Amino acid sequence: MPLLTPLANLNFSLDPTQIAGFLGADAALAAMMLPHIHGQRKWWGWYNCPGSYYLAKRYGQLARLKFWSPSYQSSAVPRELAEELTGVMGPAYTAARSGATLQSTGPLATMLVEECRELESIKIAGRHSAEMDVAIVKLEREPAELEYPRVPHTHSRRLALLPILVTMATGIACYHYGDFYSAAVIFFSALCHGIACQVMGNTRFTYQHRIPQQTARLASGWLEASRSFVVLCGTETAVAPITRGRFSLQFDESKGHGSREHSIVTGCSILLGIQFLLQLLLVPQGGLFGQTMFIASVVAAWFYHRLVLAHGKETVERRILMTDVLGEPEIQKFCFGTRTAAAVFAVLALRLHIGEDIERRLQALLPKDTPVWQLWHKVVSQKITLGQPLRFEECDWEWQKMQGLSFIEDSLLFLTLLKDAETAYATYAEYLPKTDLSRPAV
């Protein structure tokens, strides 16, 4: 008795080519370019992958094919593939000594901020208005300008069995029930994606930074993110990963047209383009059962990319940053009830790095310009500069009137802000290692 093809009696047809060509392209690219797939998973890419059109386009751009972008002036494969590893730009950074500011840093700064945000903080008693975290990060390791970090092991390669098994099962089912068009497309698509993973698997995960010679020195300083200060203590080279560092993928050689890398990437782009065309032409020729099996294999791959690989990119890169690049720095985190106390604490932690310009750094952290704030900046910065404890018994009402504070409201605000500074100093004296606060900064 001949086998009856499932869904054979239904008289409508699916058009899964849109799903195959375009669905999940962003997740597929993220998965293929992830650092943790190269050493472990390049042999585990043999499954039908969605987003074939955009994969072909991206490989064509890497190969400098004018079909994808006529503006290319060079046919060389770019040595560095950083685009797929970049994330959102990082927060502003201010150097303690020079006061120079980078309005935006790189993705590695964002990773450090997220790492600090997830740490448990020490709750500081005192006035509470709007909580502000301060993380003190002691950077001792000075990475070279070019390094190849160790990529951590993950479980993603075992989970790749899910789309591989689904691809095999759906392809065999299509062949078993006589839908040779769908079976051929499923197996050919798996072959194309496997080869594409092999190509990306031959790149190396790279850390690099470059310190320009004609710029202000950016050693110890602070990052200012949403409701948090991240204080970095270290040399310019130790801080460079946060201010100027980035991750990328590198081919071993890129010597222009005719090079081995160019030939491989060009061939891979053509192969992925053929895959998309075959999906476009042959899948509609199959039966409803074969089309359903094709969609099932694509959805399994999309599910794998979205939930297993793409969402784990930041976690894996952050682990590489903290362990290999920064050398597992010591981090202490404190939660203050006011921004004022947090700012004073940050300045105290950086005092020896700032030197004599304490008042300007306080103004950068607390940009207030009323008479009360001007007097507060002056009084607090003088005591920090002279290495004196932040206690203000002498700032009574008579002293305040001599300084120009003639209204009771101004006096109350001034005393409140001084209490915040005292809270910050008490925290500094209790928790941070003793620095030479007994002498003026030089």
Structure explained in plain terms:
The structure is a single chain. The chain is α+β, with helices and mostly antiparallel strands. Among the domains are: 17-78 and 153-202 and 254-312, no CATH class; 340-442, no CATH class. Helix content is 49%, strand content 11%. The chain has 18 helices and 11 strands. The chain has helices at 17-22, 25-33, 38-41, 52-62, 107-117, 156-159, 161-176, 180-201, 236-243, 260-282, 288-309, 313-325, 339-349, 351-354, 358-365, 371-385, 397-402, 408-431, and strands at residues 80-81, 92-95, 101-102, 122-123, 132-138, 146-147, 204-208, 221-225, 228-233, 246-250, 330-336. It has a 7-stranded mixed beta sheet, with helices on both faces. The chain has a 4-stranded antiparallel beta sheet with strand order 1-10-7-6, with no helix packed on it. Strand 8 (221-225) and strand 9 (228-233) form a beta hairpin. The termini are far apart. Residues 71-75, 254-258 and 435-442 have low confidence and may be disordered. Keywords: Membrane, Transmembrane, Transmembrane helix. The chain crosses the membrane at residues 184-201, 264-282, 288-309.
